[in-house]
Design brief:
CATH superfamily: Metal-dependent hydrolases
Strand content: 15-25%
CATH architecture: Alpha-Beta Barrel
Distance between the termini: 15 Å
Shape: globular
Bound molecules: N-carbamoyl-L-aspartate, zinc ion
Number of strands: 15
Number of helices: 12
Number of domains: 1
Mean pLDDT: 97
Low-confidence stretches: none
Largest sheet: 8 strands, parallel
């Protein structure tokens, strides 16, 4: 039977939520990933050291696995002081900036992306060497939101040449092209944006479980993202943006944004890279690039995949929480070896 080993897989953009949802999803990530960058958009968002450390501890308890490294992020506020950031620096891997209201739980994000407004904090981050992770969308027409944000990324990259800027969950060809234009720009890309376009979400019947922010784009965009991922572009890393919402909030009028992929991510990535004869690049894409970009070292897990059918559960449940994964009820070609 065919096997494939992934060393220290990292998920560099992950939503684990809190309470019972955390208890439901954390073990699923901890089972197959060596570590993850944890998003701070809880309600209320993570904006203090106390909240950050206590969330890290709750994740550790919920994941039931000491072998799962959590790289914590702080929710960007424009009024953090130098002393505060200096003090919290060693406990975080970066700070996540959301334009206010642009996605789930981002109401407390920044009201303006004006560089002068953001300058004091970004200068401190640059001086302290704290990476900036950005949800890069405007509030324009939904298919153009990321493209319209490109000038902001360029202005940020030029104004703060020493600041490491990560374009989170990129979905467009324009973002891929920008990677090669500025030394200090990097990106994460999800599994679903390598696989689907707007057609898969809304071309036939509406598929709420594929609805997320940023929305899936055009075939040209998927092609550019896939090409960069398959060759393990050194400035691109895997970040699932696995974002669980309970079934009733997805299958509803006013569907919540977010695709839940963590329990299927490695199996599907293996299938995808194999299909394109690029399996040799998968370790770099899903682990080594992130270690280089964030200057981290991790060596705690290797995951063995075997070429054996895996029937994806139709739902994951814990107490009163539940979540429907991408590819629910479908059969994948690769399984995780237990
Ligand atoms: C994320 C969530 O649900 O927290 N949703 C999503 O559609 N990706 C937030 C985000 O990363 O935009
Ligand atoms: Zn996200």
């Amino acid at each position: 039977m065919k096997e494939f080993i992934i060393n220290n897989p990292l998920d560099m953009h992950l939503h684990l939520r809190d309470n019972d949802m955390l208890k439901l999803v954390a073990p699923l990530s901890a089972k197959t990933f060596a570590g993850a960058l944890i998003m701070p958009n809880l309600v209320p968002p993570i904006t203090s050291k106390e909240a950050l450390l206590s969330y890290k501890q709750r994740i550790k308890e919920a994941s039931n696995d000491n072998n799962f490294e959590t790289f914590m992020t702080l929710f960007f506020k424009s009024d953090y002081t130098f002393d505060f950031l200096k003090d919290i620096k060693d406990d975080i891997i970066g700070i996540k900036l959301y334009p206010a209201g642009i996605t789930t739980n981002s109401e407390d994000g920044v009201s303006s992306m004006d560089i002068e407004f953001l300058r004091p904090n970004l200068q401190i981050m640059s001086d302290l060497n704290i990476p900036l992770c950005v949800h890069g969308e405007t509030n324009g027409f939904v298919m153009d939101r990321e493209k319209e944000f490109m000038p902001t990324y360029e202005a940020l990259a030029k104004s703060f040449p020493k600041l490491k800027i990560i374009m989170e969950h990129i979905t467009t060809k324009e973002a891929v092209l920008l990677l090669d234009k500025y030394d200090n720009l990097y990106a994460s890309v999800t599994l679903h944006h390598l696989l689907i376009t707007l057609d898969d979400l809304a071309g036939d019947s509406l598929k709420p479980h594929l609805f997320c922010k940023p929305i899936a784009k055009r075939p040209r965009d998927k092609k550019a993202l896939l090409k960069a991922a398959l060759k393990a572009h050194p400035k691109l890393m895997f970040g699932s943006d696995s974002a669980p919402h309970p079934k009733h909030k997805k299958e509803s009028c006013g569907c919540a944004a977010g695709v839940f992929t963590s329990p299927i991510a490695l199996q599907v990535l293996t299938q995808l890279f194999e299909k394109h004869k690029c399996l040799d690049n998968l370790n770099t894409f899903v682990s080594l690039n992130a270690q280089k970009i964030y200057n981290i070292k991790i060596n705690n897990k290797y995951i063995k995949l075997i070429k054996k059918d895996f029937k994806v559960p139709n739902i994951y449940e814990y107490k009163n929480e539940n979540v429907v994964p991408m590819y629910a009820n479908e059969t994948l070609l690769w399984s995780i070896k237990e």
